[in-house]
Amino acid sequence: MGVKEKKNELTAEEVIELLELEPLETEGGMFKQTYFSSRREGGIPYTQAIYYFLTEHSFSHMHRLTSEEVYHFYMGDCVELCELKKDGSMKVVNLGTDIRAGERPQYVVEEGSWQGARLKPGGKWALLGTMMCPCFSEGCYEHGNACKLKEKYPEAESYIEALTGEVRAY
Asked: Which of 64, 47, 55 is nearest to 23 (CA)?
């Protein structure tokens, strides 16, 4: 007898409650810190991991970090992650589990790149994880400004508008 696949019937509200997620005020979405390494560098934990959660009503605001960020897709609907690189190029990655369709369960955003994410159209929610090394600190985060970003990345205008709150429609 084969293993029967169990359908994921969780609602966004259940995921939020079961994982005790809280709003991530500046960036958007919800999160919970799950790991800090015992190794320290300058008093700051060297590595950090979080759950990160998006719904159809939220998005990850375009932002830049001073270190790499590794995304892990756990469950839910496909997430579109837009990375604006230091060299002026843009890369859009679909985070998810349908690898035949080009989705990826893991992706590394380069340090110093601008990044933002949202659910693909029609999606309801997605649970991801991220890891940073060195660990997140207040000074490593820069919130994106739509006008300045559109000047440097004109081909990314629709993503920039959607991921800075200028336009919410797809």
From this structure: 55
**CA neighbor of 117 nearest in space, from 62, 67, 74:** 62
CA dihedral 148, 152, 157, 159 (to 10 degrees): -90
Cα torsion for 27, 15, 103, 120, to the nearest 10°?
-60
Q: Do strands 60-65 and 90-95 pair parallel, antiparallel, or not at all (unpaired)?
A: unpaired
| Structure confidence at residue 42 (pLDDT) | 75
| Banded pLDDT at 138 (limits 50, 70, 90) | confident
Q: What does the angle CA 155 – CA 159 – CA 160 come to, to the nearest 5 degrees?
A: 85
pLDDT confidence tier of residue 134, bands split at 50, 70 and 90: low
Of the candidates 5, 7, 10, the one whose C-alpha atom is nearest the C-alpha of residue 127 is: 10
The answer to whether residue 6 scores a pLDDT higher than 50 is: no
Which residues have a Cβ under 8 Å from the Cβ of 125 and sit 6 or more positions away? 12, 15, 53, 54, 55, 56, 76, 77, 119
CA gap 110, 105 in Å, rounded:
17
